[in-house]
Write a structure and sequence with these properties.
4 helices, single chain, alpha+beta, elongated, Aminopeptidase
Length: about 200
């Protein structure tokens, strides 16, 4: 059977089983609760992708959330949340990843270590590294490249281009050596030729 998310218009095919259990299906694109059942079910495939501007942010949020949930060292707690763009712009939005080290005694909401800026009118995503380099405070080396790889996979699937901007010289040089396309001295584009394997 097919179920539709009325929030973003995505359609999913699911299969019900005979197992009696209360289940709720959450849209992987916009996180809206779209289906409840007293039987167990499993998703089979995406029948229709959501309207433009919903698929990419939702899939990236789901991908990062799954990745962070699977992070096993127990030192990091995190929150993912959308923010309005600094200046009101149609088809622009931001997704923030905020992390805190649970070993630290400071009482705060942690630090924003990843900012993802969506420009839906041009199908572009920008990640400023002013914040992104701070991910090393909380996560092991190599996590940065892994998260970039996951984000790029979503971009490639849905036709978006991924740019790393406001780069420090060392990270710019590192990604160019890995095959990223140099746009200018502080910007590169991640492409299918960029090697994001942990080195």
């Amino acid at each position: 059977m097919n179920i539709k998310c009325e929030n973003c218009n995505a359609v999913f095919e699911i299969e019900l089983t005979e197992t009696k259990v209360n289940c709720q299906y959450t849209c992987v694109f916009c996180w809206a609760n779209i289906f409840k059942s007293d039987k167990h079910f499993r998703p089979i495939k995406i029948v229709t992708y959501p309207r433009k501007g919903v698929a990419v942010p939702g899939m990236i949020r789901t991908t990062i959330n799954t990745f962070m949930n699977n992070y096993k060292d127990g030192l990091v707690s995190y929150k993912l949340f959308f923010d309005p763009y600094d200046e009101p712009k149609k088809d622009w939005e931001k997704l923030h990843l905020r992390c805190e080290n649970q070993n630290e005694k400071k009482q705060n909401d942690g630090s924003i270590v990843l900012e993802i800026i969506f420009n839906h009118s041009e199908n572009h995503i920008y990640i400023p590294t002013v914040l992104f380099t701070g991910i090393f405070i909380f996560l092991h080396q190599g996590m940065r490249e892994k998260i970039l790889s996951l984000i790029f996979n979503v971009c490639e699937l849905l036709g978006y281009r991924l740019f790393i901007v406001d780069m420090v010289e060392s990270f710019h040089e590192n990604l160019v050596q890995r095959g990223a396309t140099c746009i200018d001295y502080e910007t590169v584009e991640i492409t299918k030729f960029t090697n994001l394997e942990i080195q």
